[in-house]
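User: Aminomethyltransferase, Cebus imitator:
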Amino acid sequence: MQRAVSVVAHLGFRLQAFSPDLYRPLSFAQDVLRRTPLYDFHLVHGGKMVEFAGWSLPVQYRDSHTDSHLHTRQHCSLFDVSHMLQTKICGSDRVKLMESLVVGDIAELRPNQGTLSLFTNEAGGILDDLIVTNTSQGHLYVVSNAGCWEKDLALMQDKVRELQNQGRDVGLEVLDNALLALQGPTAAQVLQAGVADDLRKLPFMTSAVMEVFGVSGCRVTRCGYTGEDGVEISVPAAGAVHLATALLENPEVKLAGLAARDSLRLEAGLCLYGTDIDEHTTPVEGSLSWTLGTVTSGCPSPSLKKNVAMGYVPCEYSRPGTKLMVEVRRKQQMAVVSKMPFVPTNYYTLK
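Assistant: Predicted structure for Aminomethyltransferase:
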């Protein structure tokens, strides 16, 4: 059996956009790519658009990838993550449906509390990772990955039909909201200026519906994919540009794209589905029970100024401090097994 580990490699190579296989130039199929409600907004602000999971998204803006990364760690950045699948599960049997598909105790979630969970197959392999929130409005709010959109939606729809045929009370709705992530140590301070709710009462992995900078009906969830404090805002599509524009008026906020998001999540020890975990990975193997010989993700860390990676090694080589040899561009390099996250997380919790 193999176990997921993190390694720090003491070698140097030029900083560049990460996971290049994930991003493709738009020229190959821009006519068939999906666009978020902020597509034109990205172009106006100098977004370099690439293909990602069937969507046209900014990989970076006018600032360099490294500058965007470090700005997020020191201030806050705004990411467009509207490509994520947002669904609403309704009906009195909504919890029964979700618990039949995921690992996790959904029934024990408090009102407006969320949890990271996993869709798994019959062999225990990970079909996708997702966040499930038990809203106080009587439905489950689910956010899952764009790369698994069709698979996840079919999985949930099939289970809905199965339970409905049994006379169960359950339904599913796909939301067409935009999804904006404001991430960084000053994110709450920036957002507080545009909401009436006291964000000090909104700890990590909880959410609330509120008006945000004049846009009503926004669900604000204290979570993110960077390891920093921050929120994800599910906003009606018609209000997305207004909200993004209002947030950018604060000099603390800069736009950031896929490249910074990738390196930030790697520093925070957060897995990327399809790269670090997939249907052949179990939650235990992926250290998601709470997920190298094979390297799955790697990049130069702008924060640490060292190269970092995640991957799998046999258990006997997984102890922190163990020295390994890794292959980088067909050259053997020394590496050391390290604890994750590489950079300490700064999630906001109630004291």
